[in-house]
Amino acid sequence: MLFSSPNCSVSINKLSFCLQRLNVNIKQCRYKHRTLKKSYETLGLREDCEDEDLRLAFVHLAKQYHPDSGSSRANSMKFSEIESAYRLIQRERSSCKEDNDSLLEVEEFDIKHTAPQHRHFLAYDTGIGTLSERQRRHTRERAQKAIDNVMEHRLQKIQAAERNTLVGMDKRRAGDVKTRFGIDRLVEDLIQESMNKGEFKDLPGMGKPLRDRASAQNPYVDFVTHKLNE
């Protein structure tokens, strides 16, 4: 004797419901395909025609069957059938394009999502926080680093200008010292040469010791007053 469990009966009911839904979907797909095929036949086109061919065929037939076209073949019923067929094909093609675009978007998202998670932390340097937070922090750090580099460059230019100015001043001062020392040596050489020639022998006090000015000067009078008194 066979006994049916409640779980088994529930599974059978679900299976039968799924089969019914499947049959309904199959019937709908067949009806949709027949209707779409009839629409292409109404426009006189193949199912694999281009969008431009579809538009041109509709325009050509509309000029013939539109009630206001003034044509001998003008027919409002025929024009309505042609317009309905054209709209149906357009909706079907737009739906197919949207489905394809959504599939591409899902695939791209899956590829990005399945990338190793540690690669997110390799971007925007290291640190804690979400990807957007680390991106903002990385942007701020780059901006601050750029500002620091600009300030450092300006400071180096100022220091270089000051250094060049100081070097030029040192060179000019060194030239002055060399010139003064050169003149002093030249004067000393000329004096020594004149003394050797005896040109200073006619000066008063020649060959005599210098006067002792320290003993003749009043120690309580400053040098300037003493010279004025003389």
Automatic annotation (TrEMBL):
Residues in J domain copies: 38-104
- Residues crossing the lipid bilayer are none
Alphabetized InterPro entries for the sequence: DnaJ_C_subfamily_28, DnaJ_domain, DnaJ_homolog_subfam-C_membr-28, J_dom_sf
Task: Give the matching SUPFAM superfamilies.
Answer: Chaperone J-domain
Q: Which PROSITE patterns match?
A: DNAJ_2 (PS50076)
Pfam families named among the record's database cross-references: DJC28_CD, DnaJ
Query: PANTHER family given for it?
Result: DNAJ HOMOLOG SUBFAMILY C MEMBER 28, OS08G0560600 PROTEIN
Query: Could you tell me what this protein is called?
Result: J domain-containing protein
Kindly list the organism's lineage: Eukaryota, Metazoa, Ecdysozoa, Arthropoda, Hexapoda
